[in-house]
UniProtKB/TrEMBL annotation:
Span of domain ABC transporter: 12-246
Similarity-based family: Belongs to the ABC transporter superfamily.
Name recorded for this polypeptide: Arginine ABC transporter ATP-binding protein
Keyword Transport: yes
Pfam families recorded: ABC_tran
Gene Ontology MF annotations: ABC-type amino acid transporter activity; ATP binding; ATP hydrolysis activity
Keywords: ATP-binding, Nucleotide-binding, Transport
InterPro entries per record: AAA+_ATPase, ABC_ATPase_HisP-typ, ABC_transporter-like_ATP-bd, ABC_transporter-like_CS, MetN_ABC_transporter-like, P-loop_NTPase
PROSITE patterns from the UniProt entry: ABC_TRANSPORTER_1, ABC_TRANSPORTER_2
Keyword Isomerase: no
Amino acid sequence: MSDTVPGSTPMVRFDAVDKWYGDNHVLKNINFEVAKGEVVVVCGPSGSGKSTLIRTVNRLEPIQKGKIYLDGQDIYAPSLDVNAFRQRIGFVFQQFNLFPHMSVLDNVTFAPLKIQKRPRGEAEAFARELLERVGLAAKADAFPGFLSGGQQQRVAIARALALNPPVMLFDEPTSALDPEMVGEVLQVMRSLAREGITMICVTHEMGFARDVCDRVVFMDEGQIVVDAAPDAFFENPDHPRVRRFLADIL
Ligand code: ADP
Ligand code: MG
């Protein structure tokens, strides 16, 4: 949770960001900050721009106007070392996309070995520690196809943590899971939030939002319509579109 020093550099900052896909204006004047250690939930109707918003943080999508900063650094600056930059952001998608032909342990050690050139012993020790944290120490030698969806998503979280990123982005990490597996993934996300890692989570899990996050951002038609503390968001949804959204999903 948040333990921000007032005036310190935000971990992520959007400054008047606009993005179009062709004629489709998908991000409209986005101004938004995430402090170090803060956990922000992004929600809103389908097509409102949530995925696009978090994909721009990782430079997976170009923007046409404005700036995005990671810990004060302009992420679209020509001088930016993109590979080094990407190592500072962990990304967990709806589809876990594990390497199917590699064991769980090899999935988690892949980036530390290939990208960071860490010694194998060290990478494996850290991977086992991460698997322990997501409750899968016993599955290190299993192959993804033999795991449940919830277990695969927990491996994907361990893999994203393997480069020790200061920021974790989640894009609907539980939406592709059978209902009985949602809880185990949210449990892992809750424990990460408590450890003070900065998190931006696109999710419709409103229980998680209410209990865990510091702020809820609600998007509609490419705009941030509400950016509020969870209590204010849930108890006084003063925006009609938020009320409609909550009525539909709760
Ligand atoms: P959400 O995650 O809130 O459902 P998205 O960010 O995926 O919304 O989509 C926002 C808008 O951008 C939608 O109109 C969608 O059709 C469009 N869009 C998303 N991805 C692409 C893409 N790769 N190419 C063109 N249009 C896209
Ligand atoms: Mg999406």
